[in-house]
Amino acid sequence: MRIVQKYGGTSVGSVERIRKTAKIIQGELERGNQVAVVVSAMSGETNRLLALANEISESPTSRELDALVATGEQVSAALLAMELQNLGIKAYSFNGAQAGMKTDGRFVRARITDVKSDHLIEHLERFEVPVVTGFQGVDELGNITTLGRGGSDTSAVALAIAVKADVCDIYTDVDGIYTTDPRIVPKAQKMDQISFEEMLEFASLGAKVLQTRSVELAMRYNMPIHLRSSFDLVPGTMVTIEDEKMERATISGVAYNRDEAKITIMEIPDHPGIASNVFGPVAEAGINVDVIVQNVSEEGHTDITFTVPRSDYAPTMKIMAGLTEELGASNFKGDDTVAKVSVIGVGMRSHAGVAQKMFQVLATEGVNIQMITTSEIKITVVIEEKYVELAVRALHAAFGLDKESNTI
Amino acid sequence: MRIVQKYGGTSVGSVERIRKTAKIIQGELERGNQVAVVVSAMSGETNRLLALANEISESPTSRELDALVATGEQVSAALLAMELQNLGIKAYSFNGAQAGMKTDGRFVRARITDVKSDHLIEHLERFEVPVVTGFQGVDELGNITTLGRGGSDTSAVALAIAVKADVCDIYTDVDGIYTTDPRIVPKAQKMDQISFEEMLEFASLGAKVLQTRSVELAMRYNMPIHLRSSFDLVPGTMVTIEDEKMERATISGVAYNRDEAKITIMEIPDHPGIASNVFGPVAEAGINVDVIVQNVSEEGHTDITFTVPRSDYAPTMKIMAGLTEELGASNFKGDDTVAKVSVIGVGMRSHAGVAQKMFQVLATEGVNIQMITTSEIKITVVIEEKYVELAVRALHAAFGLDKESNTI
User: Fold this and answer.
1) Contact A56 B93 (CB under 8 A)
2) Can you tell me which residues bind substrate (chains A, B) (predicted)?
3) Residue B64 and residue A78: Cβ atoms within 8 Å?
4) pLDDT, tens digit, for every residue of A207-244?
């Protein structure tokens, strides 16, 4: 097998951790596999560098920020290569430019456009280990770029695709994806397998284990991702294309996100283009609107309700204060104590009545549903934040995800 | 004027120092000059990185060492570029690869082979400031290389030559080259000007202000170096080609070096190849032999005396212990309390009797000369270390270098 492994900041966060990480790589080589490695900066290093930049300037240019923070991964890559050499393994560090990680020129949030890594394949074929800096690349002018927080996952998947790896192992400090947050539901189970589509829903709902873009990329090229723990070398969760095996469960998991605020603008005169009048100014302020619900028009007026990240609540309310009169609406109101709860599963496609069952479970528990939005493999409701744990526990049990119910 | 400025680690050692350095650059731009900058790593940073490497491995590979420590300059270059931008100056950082600093593939001690910096000239012509990492480059395979300690001086001179600068300003924490060490001779004077040849002698005698290779390179391409202080913006010492003005003084300065040890191997059978039999094993141990004196052969035997850096005294003595019997010598002895004192000056070429005057001055002071070696512009004697201050003061005065004697 040819494997690309990605290690996050904690896995290279100290000399001791680097030694453990090198041992994992050694183990994989001893099993006869070819291994390329992608590393993040040592934990804390990126923040140290950003603090230096902020001491210099309140708003440093993004080109120089990227040149600065990209050094973090170069340090960890060199150190890990040294430790692999200690173990008698031929290893070589490569920074973004050296690894052929080509990106567009959007500093701080660049996107990978191409990976020119034929020279890395030569190393792999000799069972040597290229250690590549994650999170970074070069644009076509040779400027150093970074991919934004969590970008190392995307680097790893892109490299795996480029070197035609069989799997991309993402080592992290959790051992996989769970059916829901075990802190809320102790009976939550680790999933052996999850589809790319489901993983995307989990990721977009705040499961911070994988960067959304890395999953999108893996899905497009059908590159399996093995999400696993660097502390405990048991199998984690395999993120792959949907297969028959996955069909058996109606839903795969229950996700939630407390980072939500809800805003309603009332009795707006309803005419074509009203939505863009409301959301244009919000988008211009760089605020991402999530769930949107528009009531049926009554007497030429309508209400529009939408959610934003809680940190954007205050600026959004300010924008609404200005818009209400301008648009001829009667009033606006907000609530920053709401949360989202979702049930996710490719099984929904072949099982009718999932939404109805979800609403019924919540009604039984006395949880009022404020907003509803659905996709083919997900149903999301907005509820009062105080009901989150109750709702998650009830849904997890009702859909047969509790550990006991599965072992029966 | 087009100027390449080089700033050492202390000049970029803190946010405060970076701000001061940016101000100096701004001043130069305001005088209508074009400025490119070469920076070292923040002081302490290279050692911090080396300590990390040594924690990982007792003997890390030099390829990875270079990849590791090269990040130091990338950090300081990015931070200085940010600060220049704060001042409204268009500035861009470039690492070794980006600046086109091509080197051979000898990691840790690479030599610059070419500088492909046409893109930097475009910036200069627009009065924008390229901030280039010193000390590093890339070999033809794209591997990151470093030039060895002090290599940033060489980077700066090479860049100055490549962009056809008028002068290479080396900013440091001293304000120039002195006729001798002011700690020994308070009447020592700063030299306004010194020839490349003289600077080379000063550098090789332990004046640590300029890396020898940078002076050699500047001499070859006739690139004037202005050695000056970043703390006090007065003119420093200009290192240039020899001119008529320099002819007036017989000697330019008095140098000394305490880092010396002397070893004698006695009554070796004198036959062709004896020197290589003695010095071959020393060179193989990586020890640099400096002054060598071989006595006139008497009855088929000769004595060979030579000096080595004091830190190499013990290993050299060990080698001699092994060689003495092997070569049929009668004995060997060593002395690690010797020092070198030199008088240097292009004026020697046109002034006879400098050596004789030097020996006379030392004799008058009761200083016994143990070894003598000369070049066209330098006379060096090895003496007992305890006489160093006495010898330096006497020679400085005798050759008319004391401040008063010159102002008469």
Assistant:
1) no
2) 46, 73
3) yes
4) 677 888 999 999 999 999 999 998 888 999 999 998 76
